[in-house]
Amino acid sequence: MSEHELETLMARLREELSRMDEDQGEARQRLEGLLANLEHRLAHPREDNEDSELIETLQAAIERFEIEHPRATGIVNQIMVTLSSMGI
C-alpha cells in the first residue's frame, strides 16, 4: 500500500463528508480535522513524533462514528490499515 492509496482514501472521505447533512456539523468538523492531520503527515513525513497522536485520533474517530457514519468509519479504518502498511 502506498501514499497514492492513502490519497485515494482521503478523497473518498472528503466525498463522504460532502454527503453529510448540515446538522452533523460536529462530525464534519472532526473528520475535516482528521483530514488536515493526514495531509500534514503526508507533507511532513519525517515528523515521527506525530505518528502516535495521528493513530490515536484515527482510532477515536472510528469509535465515535461507528454507528452514526458507518461509511466514513470504514474509510477511516482503511486509512489506518494503509498507514500501518506504510510503517506509520
Give the tags.
mainly alpha, 0% strand, 88 residues
Protein architecture, described:
It is a single chain. The chain contains four helices and no strands. It is 76% helix and 0% strand. The chain has one domain. The longest helix has 19 residues, at 25-43. It has helices at 3-19, 25-43, 51-65, 70-85. The protein is globular. The protein is an all-alpha fold.
Structural class of the helix and strand makeup? mainly alpha
Mean pLDDT: 85
Helical proportion, percent range = over 70%
- The coarse silhouette is globular
How many H/I helices? 4
How is the topology of this model organized?
Elements: H1 3-19, H2 25-43, H3 51-65, H4 70-85
Summarize the structure.
The protein is mostly helical. It has helices spanning 3-19, 25-43, 51-65, 70-85.
